[in-house]
Structures are given as structure tokens and as C-alpha cells.
Amino acid sequence: MPEQTVMVWIEDGTGRIARGHADSGGAEGVHVRLAETPDFGEGDEVAVRICFERGAPTIATTARVGGVRTGEDGVACDLLWTAPAEQRSAFDAWPAHAA
């Protein structure tokens, strides 16, 4: 069975969107590998859309950037959900979605 890719789109305050794939996530936040260095940084509030599988509807939420790191294996960022708990409930079963 092929590995399932969780797609993530992160929109900063200027409307610029950074794309990436979630490495892991859950009810508190998500760790994302980005395609390129984003314009946002630690502490910024961002809008987030997540798609657990190709063709499925996206889930929209908000988050605060916990940090952005650039290393040998690319750019990564941590997002901490800021939406109310009832809106974050879609992420409670994250391990069931991620391969």
C-alpha cells in the first residue's frame, strides 16, 4: 500500500501561500515539510488548510507558527492550532489518517 500524503497549505497575513506535507500532527498542532522557505516566522498567525487524502475536502483552521527551520533535509515548520477546540476535533484522530 502506498504511503498516504497529508497535504498542507499555509496562508500568511499577506495572502501568500506556502505548500507542504505533514510529517505528523494531532489535536495540538502539526509538523510540516515545506516546498520552499516561507515569508512567515515564529509567532505569526496563519490560516491553514489540510487534506488527508487526494480528492477529499480540505479542513480549514488557524494556527500560530511555533518555529521555522531550514536544514539539510529542507524547510520545516511547526504549527500550533489556535482555533477553538470544537474546530480542532477533526484532528483528534490524526494517526488514523496519516500513514
How would you portray this structure in words?
This protein has 2 helices and 6 strands; from the N terminus they run ββββββαα. It has 99 residues and is mostly beta strands. A 6-stranded antiparallel β-barrel has the order 1-2-3-6-5-4. A hairpin with a 2-residue loop joins strand 5 and strand 6. The longest helix has 4 residues. It is globular. The model has no long low-confidence stretch (mean pLDDT 86).
SS strand fraction = over 45%
Weakly predicted, low-confidence segments: none
Span of the ends, CA to CA: 10 Å
What do the pLDDT scores average to? 86
* Spatial strand arrangement across the major sheet: 1-2-3-6-5-4
Q: Which structural class is indicated by helix and strand composition?
A: mainly beta
Q: Please give the radius of gyration in angstroms.
A: 13 Å
> What's the shape?
globular
How many strand elements? 6
Number of discrete helical segments: 2
Series of secondary-structure elements, N-terminal to C-terminal: EEEEEEHH
Largest sheet: 6 strands, antiparallel, barrel
Question: How helical, in percent, are the residues?
Answer: under 10%
